[in-house]
Amino acid sequence: MSNLLLCQGNFCTFLCPHGDDLCLNSLKDLFNRATNLSQDIYNLSSKMFKEFDKRYAQGKGYITMALNSCHTSSLPTPEDKEQAQQTHHEVLMSLILGLLRSWNDPLYHLVTEVRGMKGVPDAILSRAIEIEEENKRLLEGMEMIFGQVIPGAKETEPYPVWSGLPSLQTKDEEARHSAFYNLLHCLRRDSSKIDTYLKLLNCRIIYNNNC
Amino acid sequence: MKENAASRVLFILLLFLYASLLNGQSPPEKPKLIKCRSPGKETFTCWWEPGADGGLPTNYTLTYHKEGETLIHECPDYKTGGPNSCYFSKKYTSIWKMYVITVSAINQMGISSSDPLYVDVTYIVEPEPPMNLTLELKHPEDRKPYLWIKWSPPTLTDVKSGWFSIQYEIRLKPEKATDWETHFAPKLTQLKIFNLYPGQKYLVQIRCKPDHGYWSEWSPESSIQIPNDFPVKDTSMWIFVGVLSAVICLIMVWAVALKGYSMVTCILPPVPGPKIKGFDIHLLEKGKSEELLRALESQDFLPTSDCEDLLMEFIEVDDSEDQHLMPHPSKEHMEQGVKPMHLDPDTDSGRGSCDSPSLLSEKCDEPQAYPSKFHIPEGPEKLENPETNLTCLQAPQSTNGEGKIPYFLANGPKSSTWPFPQPPSLYSPRYSYHNIADVCELALGMAGTTATLLDQTDQHAFTPSKTIETGGEGKAAKQRESEAYNSEPDQDMAWPLLQDKTPLFSAKPLEYVEIHKVSQDGVLALFPKQNEKVDAPETSKEYSKVSRMTDSNILVLIPDLQAQNLTLLEEPAKKAPPALP
């Protein structure tokens, strides 16, 4: 099997420099699993958002408050195909890692607070629990991929910190529901970002832009 | 004054309104944004529904602003998407950003604006149907024929770079049928369909869905005619298989009919019943035990050479102080030629055989069946656990300076090492048995007990299921659960007690009343038994030869080398037979 050459403009690097099948297969497998996980996380968060919207947010206009409310908006993520294709894979991977890490804490609190909500449908709670679990697994997998694709690179970039816990715990029910709506809306968006970036990287690295 | 002015304005306004109403003109009704869709996550289009135009020419304008921006833009393209639409090209499209879109209708009379629509392009993706649907009938040799369906991804979707991921769904049906047969194709752009009906015209459609988004519309129908001679399956092979299996069935039926029974016995041989040479079950049924035993007597049905290995080879009786016990080879005794008798006619006949595994175990298990059991349990419950009475000691190889001298230890209460509770005058256990350990192990093993002869745990005699060990001696006794052991120690002495350090000298009379084993040569191996009813040593004789068996199930023993008095020993079950001089 030939070496895996990763080119970005005029700058090329060799992945799996020794050209062994094991390295390539393991990378392929890692990406495969990662994209499956990210797709699943997106599906869950999308369903969770829709369920919450149907139950708690009808006619409330929470969406207006949700604009610009995501704690990860400070990350410089590409916002269309051209931008994404011009982003170096190393940057893209760091962004994915930053997103995953910044969601660890909010997901944990989401589960705790959703549990405490009166009459919360099981569809929401069970999905929240599953997303939290899968987020951790995806983070682990991403770190492995990162280590293989860019060996030796430091990947301890700071990530955005979430500070929305007080609004999740407020006594005012409307305000609390609005805060949940924001969180779920941002979760759906960020999981879509992670999923798309991963699939881009997968086709770029493993299949050489020929998916 | 002011009131006049106000009322005047009002009047004019009403007049104006009246005039316009008369003309049928009014400000336009609020338009309504229907939906926005993106075919490939790179562009999108929004459509609205105009309201009533109020009788006047009305213009519609679409304005929007993006999340995080304050600047308001107008729609860049009203044409491409058709009437009442706005098309956002790549330049104007951002993903993962909320668009707040409003449509306004303006006419001479006024302006009406729609409710804002919040749109994120990520979630409004709906692709076109797949393209280039081709159908082809293939019939390769040696394989099943199939319909090969191929297609390509819809326009405007960039699948190669991974920006867009698609799944496909195909459905087909014969033209006249009502239900569609649906197939799912996750990634590839081709599908093979088997099992089609010949002579039918099939209709095929396909649609697709992005990983986040809506299903596309169904593609236009493609049709294909399956020719009449199209082979559905590879039937020739099945015909052959069917004929072959029919032939085989016929053969089997014929064979069974002819030789049914012998075949059955060949396949399922009958289980052989227990049989002993010379033993007639019918005699048993009739209850004629004497004849039965005579029949047994005439047979040499007892042990084979194995037994010699198993059993202790000798029995010694210490008659007086002069005598000393020494191990004899068992052959001398074995060659007495006495026919052993089995003393339990009312149980099944298999017990006498040394080869039968039941022999030793039963002797071990059911001591009560023998005249002189080694244990006199207090209550009947003890008898239910025959295994509990069996204790086998085996000296560890290393500690016994006299070599392997296995011996049996009765379960006395304080008898972990020194099982000699009864007055020593009764008898002295000075028996050395070779291979008793093997015998005992075999007995225990065959009895299915879980006795572990060589457990090395310090244990008091009474503890159930534990082994007794005397540290220095290394005796191991496996005890069964039995409270009987807690009872009088002197009753527990069934086996001879042998201690490592006691000299093999004693002047105690001995009595053998329990049949342990019958060797091939007719030598009866007996266990000594303590007879608590015996006050004084009646005799000090050595009885090691069976003379005959009396009518009342009494075993007649004769001494071996000396011409001594015959002793009759009665052996009723569960009783200690007295020794009669």
UniProtKB/TrEMBL annotation, chain A:
Binding site for Zn(2+): D195
Entry superkingdom: Eukaryota
Quaternary structure annotation from Swiss-Prot or TrEMBL: Interacts with PRLR.
Annotated GO biological process: female pregnancy; lactation; positive regulation of cell population proliferation; positive regulation of gene expression; positive regulation of lactation; positive regulation of receptor signaling pathway via JAK-STAT; response to nutrient levels
Keywords for the protein's UniProt record, in alphabetical order: Disulfide bond, Hormone, Lactation, Metal-binding, Secreted, Zinc
Biological source species: Capra hircus
UniProt KW Secreted keyword: yes
Family per record: Belongs to the somatotropin/prolactin family.
GO MF term list: hormone activity; metal ion binding; prolactin receptor binding
Record has Disulfide bond as a keyword: yes
Full protein name: Prolactin
GO cellular component assignments: extracellular space
Localization, UniProt: Secreted
PANTHER family per the UniProt record, alphabetical: PROLACTIN, SOMATOTROPIN,PROLACTIN
From TrEMBL, chain B:
Ranges for region Disordered: 324-386, 464-489
Signal peptide: 1-24
Role description: This is a receptor for the anterior pituitary hormone prolactin.
GO molecular function, one term: metal ion binding
Domain of life: Eukaryota
Subunit structure comment from the entry: Interacts with SMARCA1. Interacts with NEK3 and VAV2 and this interaction is prolactin-dependent.
Listed Basic and acidic residues bias regions: 324-349, 375-385
GO BP term, example: positive regulation of cell population proliferation
Name of the protein in question: Prolactin receptor
High-level lineage: Eukaryota, Metazoa, Chordata, Craniata, Vertebrata
Main location: membrane
Matches recorded under SUPFAM superfamilies: Fibronectin type III
